[in-house]
Amino acid sequence: MEATEQNKPKVVVIDSLRSWEHHLTEASNQNCPVVVHFTASWCMPSVAMVPVFEELALSYPDIVFLTVDVDEVKGVATRMDVKAMPTFLLLKGGVAVEKVVGANPEEIKKRIDGVVQSNRVLVA
Fold this sequence. Notes:
Blueprint: H1 2-7, E1 11-14, H2 17-29, E2 34-39, H3 44-59, E3 64-69, H4 74-79, E4 87-92, E5 95-101, H5 105-123
Parallel strand pairs: 1-3, 2-3
Antiparallel strand pairs: 2-4, 4-5
């Protein structure tokens, strides 16, 4: 059963403020970076980024990937000061350390790599 868990994309859909806080707390407790895709169903660049984001989730198994629909969970978008879709935030310890606005897969990957590298330095 564990092998199938490893093969599916591990993007968690956040459906409430409570879910958001739970996943951030879990990630912080495990010293695990978080990448969040703030999206909206009406935003075509956001929709186009969904498969890219799922692919990134498979490529970085030590990072938590979350998706927040800004229309469904407005409180999270407001709290994180998200004003445009798509917005990608990289969080460490629940604090945003990187922000990419717009559908830019290369830039998102570059920022994730930077966070992964700094995390390895901290652990080493």
